[in-house]
Amino acid sequence: MGPIVLAFALAVLAWMFVVGDLVRRHRPVWHWYLIGYPVAAWRVVFTWRRVAVLNDLAVSRLPARTLVGHLLVKGDPVRPVAPRCSFPRATPMGLTLVVRLHAGQTPATYLKAADAFVHAWKVHAVRVTSPERGLVLLTAMASDPLERPGLATAPAELLSALIGALETGGAWVMNLRLVPHWLIVGATRSGKSTLLARLITQLATQRVALVGVDCKGGMELGLFTARLSALATCRREAVAVLAALVVDMQDRMSACRSAGVRSIWELPDKLRPVPVVVLVDEIAELYLSDGTRESKAEAEQCSTLLLRLAQLGAALGIHLVVAGQRVGSDLGPGVTALRAQLGGRICHRVNDPGTAEMTLGDLNKDAVAVAQAITAAERGVAVCTGPDGGWSRARSHLTPTDEAVATARKYSAMTPELPLVTRALVALEGENK
Ligand SMILES: Nc1ncnc2c1ncn2[C@@H]1O[C@H](COP(=O)(O)OP(=O)(O)OP(=O)(O)O)[C@@H](O)[C@H]1O
């Protein structure tokens, strides 16, 4: 009897420590459906009224003022009624419930109460959206889905890159046909270069010209030279490359005018010029000057040229992806104007609230707070805007440098020629000799 009991006890201990630990670390979906969801749903149902009352979501059917004889009595009516909500529905990441707003309520009241829901239901986060007038959808996430994001998939499309996974479990896609220009910010070691590497590996397989502007001596983008149509490694080269691209853009304009169309996408396939994606790593290197006249003139030229490309490039197949550690008006007046043209925004962890505000503040105030909450340990996590004007937390797929370099080499034969840009760089080299 003794050995059987001992074996049984050992088996139970092994189950608790080994299997329990695996479950805790990997949080498999079945564990959530079997144990996590029933507990969380129970919490939602039993705390709903109390949370609603404490956060002013419950409204009494009695009037706040009434006549008693000839006296008007004002006060807080008794027995407020909590808004009606559906039974929580399980999702692989957490649960959702639909709430019917009381007349006079707006989703903003629920946004304010989101933190209260998080604590009452003991979940990682609660997002509030309004899919329909009069309804609010509360999406509770049991744990941070971006800790171990799954491999999302997306259909392959020209100028579209699968960057990573969204907090909702969907694919994080940067589609330059939908949102032509992007601004990527993040403090040092937050994941900007990894994201650019991912973008390059995704675009490398397509008929797209990639132009790098990396004034940190080409340390980051230089790795992908094999698949780049041109690379500027200092500000003088950047001015030459951007000026050549502006001339190329004017040629594209004339081609469209002669064909009587408003964008290169309406041109017949044979006449359509190759789309160009300009990747700028560290925008501050283009805008900051050391006070000399020459440096100031270069910075101003860069600012004007980038702005022109951003203003006119979208319809002509010239796209900007600009990355930097910080963006602020102190870099120069041109930065704010350029930011207004970069419709797509990605904000990693930032060191100062001003940069998060500058990146996302003009689009969505809630997103700024979420971006500021990204910690140093959450590398590659960012708040990104979507084509529908919404925003989401997301994480890029970690593309190791050697993998990105190998992809760039593999598709080097697909690198399109940009004769104007190449000529400008050769002329500059000749001047330097
Ligand atoms: N999506 C990700 N998932 C996991 N780790 C990541 C991710 N993105 C980046 N990292 C890690 O963070 C480190 C720093 O990333 P990266 O070099 O891209 O930062 P950065 O913002 O470009 O920094 P810097 O401005 O100093 O160049 C990388 O070495 C990588 O290990």
Automatic annotation (TrEMBL):
Pfam families reported in the protein's UniProt record:
FtsK_SpoIIIE (PF01580)
Indicate yes or no for the key word Transmembrane helix.
Answer: yes
Task: Respond yes or no to whether keyword Transmembrane is given for this record.
Answer: yes
Span of domain FtsK: 169-357
Sequence intervals crossing the membrane: 30-48
Q: Which UniProt keywords apply?
A: ATP-binding, Membrane, Nucleotide-binding, Transmembrane, Transmembrane helix
Q: Which residues bind ATP?
A: 186-193
**Which InterPro entries does the record associate with it?**
AAA+_ATPase (IPR003593), FtsK/SpoIIIE/SftA (IPR050206), FtsK_dom (IPR002543), P-loop_NTPase (IPR027417)
**Protein known as:** FtsK/SpoIIIE domain-containing protein
Organism, by scientific name, is: Streptomyces vulcanius
